Amino acid sequence: MMKTPQIIRGSPVSPLLLLLLTGVCIDGYKPVIIVHGVLDGPKQFKILTHFITKEHPGTEVHVIDLYDGLKSFEPLWKQVEGFKKSFNSIMKHANDGAHLLCFSQGGLLCRALLSVIPDHNVHSFIALSSPLAGQYGATDYDWVFPKYTTKEIFRLCYSWLGQKISVCEYWNDPHHRDRYLKQKSFLAKLNGDIPHSHMKAWRKNFLLIKKLVLIGGPDDGVITPWQSSHFGFYDSNEQIVGMRNQKSYKNDTFGLKILDARGDVETCVHSGVEHVHWHSNHTVFRTCIQKWLI
Q1: pLDDT of 54 strictly over 60
Q2: Is 104 in the active site?
Q3: Based on the structure, what is the number of domains in the chain?
Q4: What's the confidence (pLDDT) of residue 23?
């Protein structure tokens, strides 16, 4: 952001000059693109938008109005294509780049966007309580699978029908890893858990970001395990394996290890925040988000 010229104390400053100086500050903030999660839409992000524009006046905030509510359960690659069009339309006017702030399932959609779009100009990618390494366990949305328990959902999710439901495309059952890999699901492909012809290009595209910010916490109540928001996940004994010990990190299948080596991975942990409150909690915004939106 451009620095405001120094004003000497006691010297008269005209209203016009003040406006010009304010304009310099306003023009310095990059646009922020927000992608929502399951059952969400633009209305859920009015408070977050207010936080951004209050602290960074003049910032353009775009909450993409697409696949809202129940439509968020549609297949993820289909959603990626829709979000891609909106994203590209916004980025045409963001000559100095933009920031991508993505909540919950939106974090996976944004990861896919950053992988499949070449030469994008995204500076900070902020994943706000997203199941980046997958989901396994009870959530507040258990009504989606009324006939199933956590141990049995794999039978639905790892079927032809289940793979047409967004949440099933990142269901990562540690006890049925073979079924997860066999389905070649959205998450398996995105994480490079299965080899595919686009891996090299996707990795190159993802590495164009300048900063990856991972936000989550132990009282989330939806993302399970909550460490998935930091690329940690269960092993077959349901013990947490941290990001740096994940196979996808060690093999650097999508660029996470390089980002970390560059010093461009930031993690932020907050206790006492429930899943639906991450985007309306001012402390989370102030301590985990604000400084990356410049």
Answers
A1: yes
A2: yes
A3: 1
A4: 41
User: Which residues lie below 8 Å from residue 129, measured CB to CB, with a gap of 6+?
Assistant: 103, 104, 107, 215, 216, 217, 220, 222, 223, 229, 275, 278
DSSP state of 113: H
Q: Is residue 65 part of a domain?
A: yes
Instruction: State which H helix or E strand residue 189 sits in.
Output: helix 186-190
- Is 275 an annotated catalytic residue? yes
| Set 185, 220, 248, 270: catalytic member | 220
Does residue 116 lie within any of the structural domains? Answer: yes
Q: Specify if 3 maps to a domain.
A: no
Residue 135 sits in a domain of what CATH number?
A: 3.40.50.1820
Q: Which of 104, 124, 166, 185 is catalytic?
A: 104
Task: Tell me if 269 is assigned to some domain.
Answer: yes
Q: What is the domain extent for residue 278?
A: 30-139+186-292
102 Cβ contact list (under 8 Å, min separation 6): 34, 35, 109, 110, 125, 126, 127, 128, 130
175 noted as active-site residue: no
Model pLDDT for residues 192-223, shown as the tens digit of each residue: 999 999 999 999 999 999 999 999 999 999 99
Options 99, 123, 275, 279, the catalytic residue: 275
Question: At residue 27, does pLDDT exceed 70?
Answer: no
